[in-house]
Design goal:
It is built from 5 helices and 2 strands, in the order αβαβααα. With about 80 residues, it is mainly α. It has 2 domains: about 1-50, no CATH class; about 50-85, no CATH class. It has a two-stranded parallel ribbon. It is elongated, with a radius of gyration of 16 Å.
Length: about 80
């Protein structure tokens, strides 16, 4: 996110970082390191439209599934348990 980072540093304006962010960890690191103030997703959301819910569930296993409609969350929690994760 070099462009976002440069604008943020030079102009002192909040910026949005976008480009090849595929994991929640990548997004979190960019925010924590001050490379961007907001993260935008493009291709990753085309590939996986449930990416935000997936990342929320991965980071908050107890409550992340609550973002989904109950019938989805129930099945996904059950699937995860069956897979031993």
């Amino acid at each position: 996110l070099p462009v976002s980072e440069a604008i943020r540093e030079e102009a002192g304006l909040p910026t949005m970082g976008v480009g090849l962010i595929r994991t929640g960890e990548q997004a979190a690191i960019a925010l924590q390191d001050g490379r961007a103030d907001l993260i935008a997703l493009g291709r990753e959301l085309l590939w996986n439209p449930n990416w935000p819910m997936q990342i929320a569930a991965e980071h908050d296993e107890a409550n992340g599934w609550k973002l989904m409609p109950p019938q989805y969350g129930w099945w996904l929690r059950r699937r995860k348990a069956q897979q031993g994760k």
